[in-house]
Amino acid sequence: MGFLEILSDVLSIITISLCLILKIPQIINLVKVKSAVGINLYALLLELTSYTIMTCYNYCNNYALLSYMEYPIILVQEIILISLVLKYMGLLGNISFALFGVYLGITGAFMSTLLPKWILSLLAPCCTPVSASSKVVQLLEILRTKNAESISILTWFLSAFTNLTRVFTIYMDSADVTLLVNFSVSVLLSTSIMLSAMYYKHPKKV
């Protein structure tokens, strides 16, 4: 095994380790302020869709677990985050639980190949615009409200960093163009959200 392969594995382990806590600062911050102002629910749902598709896509293509293990880890945190946002928006109820059940059913159908893999091959390229849209929507929400009090800067820093490491590790593992483009765009947008959150972290009192 050459140096680049070892470096790729080390970066993968670092990425996965950081993703264990990726959304935790955001979750803690949300519980602390008890407000979802500045957080866009649709952006979170788009993120959830993108992470789910990419998890299923990598799993069904038998890619190395180290190259995508962060996805299922982030998914759990994302679901907790969405639940909290729904709670603070007063939207957590029977309908949201029913929709979550539908989500679990569809995800299970993909991963057990009850639904054909070619559907994932069609959906995977869509994850770049979906993921980008989720971040653009969140960025616009911060700029619109000029309030990033509920936003965790650390979460978006970790997002930008882990996406950057994934550009290298994916290139070394499979050089999958779909995945490379997806992570490259995510680096740019996560960095933009982080910088915007830093600027609007303490909104001016009117």
Automatic annotation (TrEMBL):
GO CC, one annotated term: membrane
Locations listed in the record: Membrane
Keyword line: Membrane, Transmembrane, Transmembrane helix
InterPro entries: MannP-dilichol_defect-1 (IPR016817), PQ-loop_rpt (IPR006603)
Membrane topology, as annotated: Multi-pass membrane protein
Membrane in keyword set: yes
Segments traversing the membrane: 6-24, 36-54, 66-86, 91-112, 177-200
Name of the protein this chain belongs to: Solute carrier family 66 member 3
SMART domains: CTNS
Pfam families named among the record's database cross-references: PQ-loop
